[in-house]
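[PROTEIN RECORD]
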Amino acid sequence: MTKTPWYEKYKTVEELEAHVSQCVCNGNGYFRVNVLPNHRFFGKAIQCMCKRKQIISERARHFRLASGMTDAQLERWRLGLWQPTKIKVPQGKDREATVAQARKLLSLCKRYAKNPKGWLILSGPYGTGKSHLGFGIASELVLSERSAYAATMPNMLDMLRNSYQTDSYQVTLMRLRDTPLIVLDDIGVERPSGWVAEVTYSIMDYRYTENLPTVLTTNQRVSGDQPPGSGIDGRLWSRMQEHVIVNLPWGDYRTRDR
């Protein structure tokens, strides 16, 4: 019996490209399948996995630069520089137990950076070190040549607003939604408006549906029912409840001597 060629199960070039799991182009970026002239794939240049990874990486780098984060800044955010012993233990709390919690959180972030899956939400008051941990996850990916976008929520919204001026809003929005890992810092501090709510939900709902790795930080305690005036869209609040939420229970990390 003649074996069916591997590419016959795919109906379109796009489907075929999405399922190429190893480089088959010999460094050309594209390849062709050997088929007869009347075949649907005849003469089609099919994007190889290596080219797709390159494009995704370039898009992620473009977004990272647009957010204002340089390579030097990412180096400073590395997870190895976050020190659990530097946290400020709240009055009445056991220091040893609180530092142990901080070490456990750091280990969680390191594991997530190695193998990002699902959403990770870090909540806590200003200065607890959650921004460092969030950006640190992105730093570990980017410095190991993996794709990530990291920005404060206001900076991401500014980038999208500015894209209107170059008629690239829809392209920017679509690429941002598809970025392999997004880290958004300070969710809920942005000035609320109908546009902000819809844009934020569009990005987050897509990433929720596609189960794309996403790290969010917020100064609000997001476990449970949403309090009035939280600044976070109610639909997003509901989505956040289904993922890993870590509330940082200690005081200001940044006021400690380094």
Summary: The first strand starts at residue 30 and ends at 31. The chain has a mean pLDDT of 83.
